[in-house]
Design brief:
Helix content: 25-40%
Strand order of the largest sheet: 8-7-1-2-3-4-6-10-9
Number of helices: 11
Strand content: 15-25%
Amino acid sequence: MKIRSITVFCQPGFPVNRLLLQQVGIFANHARKLYQDHGYEVQSLRLATPPFEQFIAPVDLPLAAQSYAIEAHADGFEYVSLGPIQADSADWNHIPEALSKSDRIFLSGSLTTHESALSLSAARACAETIVRLSTLEKTGFANLRFCALANVPANTPFFPAAYAQPGRPSFALALEAADLAVQVFKNATSLQEASAGLITEIEKHAAQLEAVGNRLSQMYTYEFNGLDFTLAPFPADAASIGRALESLGLEAFGKPGSLFASAFLTNTLDQAQFKRTGFNGLMLPVLEDSGLAQSVSDGHLGLRDLLMYSSVCGAGLDVIPLPGETTAEELTPILLDLAALALRLNKALTARLMPIPGKKAGEMTNFDFDFFANCRILPVNSAPLLGKLKGNEEIAITARRAFKS
């Protein structure tokens, strides 16, 4: 198990408050050392600000992105999230230019309003942004640093979803822990044993991680928000959430029974006792997981399957390779479906969709990137919306209530 990131949440403003950035940089580097001293590899230090529209004029977003990329890196932060653009914003057009300034900057776009309404115009603007970003780089990599948000709270440590609340600095850990599920599920002789074993492993590590986090909080008076045990994978079978779920008894992830296996895993995570922040669910990032990539390439796993699994998982549609010719009109309905699931089920979901320039459905990706597993491009199987669904309304979607018979 590794710590994917120590994410610091703060508001350095713009122009950047150099003193604050230096202070949180000292903290983050100290935190990395303490966790490493306790045997945990820390892959990255990350900084997340409040939503950028709260402190940056949208026209200045590209300049701010360039400034943050340089100044935060000088204090040890590999990546910076400037938070989501709000659903009712008229300034989505500044996002591609801002992300073109540095590969250290992450942004997101909110599909839902503060009143828990789904914005039709925001879904369309977000889809248009994804299409524009797909052409910034030959690999389509710019969309790795942008996602759509639905019902995602502050202090979620995984990027690109991360953003801060105003106030004193705080911090949280995003964990790369799919290997725990692989090891436990492979050796278990029953589902009950698999569940109990994973809970034990999570709570064992959580106790150690929380002890260090609480110590750091006392030293620096920064709030420790907690852990995001979303079991993020790595593109090797020993750290593949797809392989972990298959070891429960699936012939291949994506075939019937996969929804049950996904619900079984998230139900297990819910039972573990630790200080929580973020998603704390099942993450199914196709390009970051060798098992999922294989299931896609073998034709067992599609975009609609992944959307269906979002009803019981914890992160949504993540790093999914799509044809380069995918249009915004085709992406908009997918984003609406995801946001509707998030609001109706009262859960946080994101969509990080990656149209790959020059690639068609069924063709293989050819990334030369240690953190990606190559797989076939998934067909979108979507059509433009018509009639009333093409409007600009904000539609309230309330969480489903349990009714007594």
